[in-house]
Amino acid sequence: GADPKNKWVLRNVVKYKNSLPFIKYLVDNGADLKTKGLLTNAISSNDLPIVQYLVKNGADPNLGLKKAIRLGYFHIIQYLIEMGADPLKLSEKYQRRALRIQQYEG
């Protein structure tokens, strides 16, 4: 079987929207949640439960905010901001886009 400690296993599981229980299994067996790209992969998959799991376990919500805005995933944008992501740290272009998404969705 696949080695859970191999960072590519976890990245691919997150990227291709596999189940949260399987991700937890990998982490319980040594997978590193600090693997680069996990949060943005979860956002690309539009998978809020996995995004929540990653943020609650130390992922920086600011790292994924730009991706969530670019993809227009309001529920993920809202969650990341609730968890401390700061849209003011982004370029003006992304600040305006976030505001438009919020007005449309909110």
UniProtKB/TrEMBL annotation:
| Pfam families for this protein | Ank_2
* InterPro entries in alphabetical order: Ankyrin_rpt, Ankyrin_rpt-contain_sf
* Protein name (Swiss-Prot/TrEMBL): Uncharacterized protein
Species in which this protein is naturally found: marine sediment metagenome
